[in-house]
């Protein structure tokens, strides 16, 4: 679905280029809006590789929770945010979404190590991956006309991620590894990990108005940090086509790509979360 929407997003600007020529002397609506609230749907495809370190066994390679453990790789979720144009050159924006997914599978591969559990073929596994992500960004316009704006960006991604499994059946525990281990049995074996962290970012955005009512927004932000035992990086690339047929209400069609990795050995996180998503957004916007 998102591929078709991306083609529409990329194709529409060219189709209205003629109309844009007649609007050179009019300010694009999105550059005049002081406050904007928007809400809609986000339809991402997601890929996650997660490592949960144990206390007894040495760290193992990460596990692809979608491919190996049957977690949903796509889901429609609520998505929204707000923008505040503080002055002609200063702005503040916030976006958020929550993506909770579950999966169930019978392991059919080689043994999988998660924490201090080694899950063997035939074990039944129920898994969860919950991600909440907010983004707070300040923008300063270094270039601005009646129809275009280039801004530098800085801010924080606020990440809250949790992953866990319940495995029943052929599971080795207490530091034992196949083939010389006991079978845990019918009582579920649980392993989980979570991280809550602010991830700084910097970047830039570009707005261009084809007509006073129709504009596009492109932005790219990212950062990498390696402090003490924490190694993290983020990259986000967004594209939006915004239509404001009325003064106080409009619509938007966008595309979001996000990739992050947070890895650590310590009390806050003993493991690694690495995931990326790509998908379209469709939303309505109220301005005042």
Spell out the key features of this protein.
about 290 residues, mainly beta, Lipocalin, three-stranded antiparallel beta sheet
Structure overview:
By secondary structure, the chain is mainly β. The chain has a single domain (2-257, 268-282), classed as Lipocalin. It has helices at residues 2-15, 17-21, and strands at 35-42, 45-52, 63-64, 77-85, 90-106, 112-114, 117-119, 124-144, 148-169, 171-172, 185-209, 214-227, 230-243, 249-265, 270-287. The model is unreliable at 1-24 (pLDDT under 50).
Number of strands: 15
Distance between the termini: 32 Å
Summarize the main sheet. 10 strands, antiparallel, barrel
Q: Mean of the pLDDT scores?
A: 86
How many structural domains are formed by the residues? 1
Fraction of helical residues: under 10%
In percent terms, what proportion of residues is strand? over 45%
Overall spatial form: elongated
Radius of gyration: 23 Å
> Structural class given helices, strands, pairing?
mainly beta
Q: Give the neighbour order of strands across the main sheet.
A: 1-4-5-8-9-11-12-13-14-15
Q: What's the number of helices?
A: 2
Which CATH first-tier class would you pick? Mainly Beta
The helix/strand order is HHEEEEEEEEEEEEEEE
Low-confidence stretches: 1-24
- CATH topology: the name is Lipocalin
What is the CATH architecture assignment?
Beta Barrel
């Amino acid at each position: 679905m998102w591929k078709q929407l991306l083609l529409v997003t990329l194709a529409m600007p060219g189709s209205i280029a003629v109309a844009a020529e007649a609007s050179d002397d009019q300010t694009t609506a999105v550059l005049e809006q002081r406050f904007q609230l928007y809400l809609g749907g986000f339809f991402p495809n997601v890929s996650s590789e997660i490592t949960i370190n144990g206390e007894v066994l040495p760290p193992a390679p990460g596990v692809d929770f979608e491919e190996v453990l049957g977690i949903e790789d796509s889901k429609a979720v609520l998505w929204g945010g707000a923008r505040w144009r503080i002055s002609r050159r200063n702005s503040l924006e916030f976006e958020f979404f929550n993506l909770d997914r579950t999966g169930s599978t019978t392991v059919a591969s080689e043994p999988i190590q998660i924490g201090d559990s080694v899950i063997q073929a035939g074990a039944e596994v129920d898994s969860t991956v919950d991600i909440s992500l907010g983004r707070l960004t300040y923008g300063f316009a270094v270039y601005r006309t009646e129809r275009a704006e280039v801004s530098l960006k800085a801010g924080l991604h606020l990440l809250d991620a949790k992953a866990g499994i319940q495995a029943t059946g052929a599971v080795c525990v207490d530091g034992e590894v196949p083939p010389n281990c006991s079978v845990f049995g019918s009582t579920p074996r649980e392993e989980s990990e979570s991280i809550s962290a602010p991830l700084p970012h910097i970047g830039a955005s570009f707005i261009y108005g084809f007509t006073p009512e129709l504009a596009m927004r492109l932005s790219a932000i990212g950062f990498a940090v390696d402090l003490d035992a924490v190694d993290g990086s983020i990259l986000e690339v967004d594209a939006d086509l915004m239509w404001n047929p009325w003064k106080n209400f409009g619509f938007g069609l966008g595309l979001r790509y996000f990739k992050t990795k947070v890895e650590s050995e310590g009390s806050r996180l003993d493991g690694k979360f690495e995931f990326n998503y790509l998908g379209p957004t469709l939303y309505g916007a109220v301005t005042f």
